From TrEMBL:
UniProt keyword terms in alphabetical order: FAD, Flavoprotein
Protein name in the entry: Aminoacetone oxidase family FAD-binding enzyme
Domain RsdA/BaiN/AoA(So)-like insert: 185-339
PANTHER family: OS12G0638800 PROTEIN
Organism per entry: Fenollaria massiliensis
Residue span, RsdA/BaiN/AoA(So)-like Rossmann fold-like domain: 4-395
The keyword Flavoprotein is assigned to this record: yes
Keyword Ion transport: no
InterPro entries: BaiN-like (IPR004792), BaiN-like_dom_sf (IPR023166), FAD/NAD-bd_sf (IPR036188), RsdA/BaiN/AoA(So)-like_dom (IPR055178), RsdA/BaiN/AoA(So)_Rossmann (IPR057661)
Cofactors, names only: FAD
Amino acid sequence: MIYDAIVIGAGAAALFFGALNKDKLNILMLERNDRVGKKLLTTGNGRCNYTNTKLNENPYNDKDFTLYMIEKYGYEAIKNKFQVMGIYPYIEEDRVYPMSLQASSVLDVLRYENERNNVNIKTDVFVKSFHKDGDIFLIKDQNANIYKSKSLVIACGGAAMPKFGSDANLYKQIKELGISVIDTKPALVPYECDYKYLKHLDGLRVKAKLSLKKAGKIIKDDVDDVLFTKYGLSGPTVFQLSRYISGKESAYKFSVDFFYTFNEDELFSSLSDRRKDIGYKSLDDFFIGLIHKRLIIPVLDRLGLVKETNAKNLSDKDLHKIINILKDFELDIIKNKGYGIGQISLGGVATKEINAKTMESKKINGLYFIGEVIDIDGPCGGYNLSFAWLSAMAAYDDIKLRCKA
């Protein structure tokens, strides 16, 4: 049998591609795991933040590449496609979740639509090789079975979650076709840091401004929750900034601004009043009510004063030093926590190799790439899943036209 399209992978992008198949194209999906969509169940902390109301602002690393898809489809198309499948939106700020707040709901409806659309899904199939012979693609699995199709869609993911099959295993074969692939690295990932009080701060979560610094200069900053762990820093801000770390990771620092809503003059005035009002207290009591208790020892350590010091003896210079500590609390970065911890991977098939309107290879007719296998990434908040849906729509629409021609 020669299929209209074979899809390698059965993750988010692939399943959405199959869910679009109202035209009942003859589609075969090959998945190496025993179940489909395993990684999808982990998204949004198990709630599946499947898109974002601000998607049309195009926050991706290659805005020129994603512009056409966003203008043609965008947030409304994604919302409507899911709504007709039974996924109604629940919106927190700009993040969109299923009303059930369960990632399993999204996976269940995608599986249902694939079955309804007669998509043939085979699990436990590991693709060993693929090539094009004339107008037909030949795909060989681990048991030497050969599958044939007119179009081939690569939706195998990136390198972020090896245990779920996203381990970049097909990139070597893609390169052998003469297609450029950008080296991958983990992103939206926690970082190990070098700081002696990390165990003391483990579990502390604060809303703050986190800045990424290199050679004393701020590269990027973000305001959201910062989570201190026994190994370093995690949380939404760290995930966002991880996309901007390249090369030698130890050349970077994180800086936490615990009082980002105050400028230095406002904070100095507040500390001066505090010194006047409760200057009779020792420093370990002076900070209670101002900062989290677990921050007191680290702040005193950086201040170079013992906790028994009387607050009234703080000089204006000391107050300015406290301000600098609270608004520029630096931690040295050691390394990221690696694949399997990071939510996505950067890198993948170079966008210059792909038609931005159709997701088709510019070098090989009928070969398509969708989802995380492409060198496109966005911030936290449903943007990376949104790209999976957008690229699947673009590829499906083109393959549908090809089949009807």
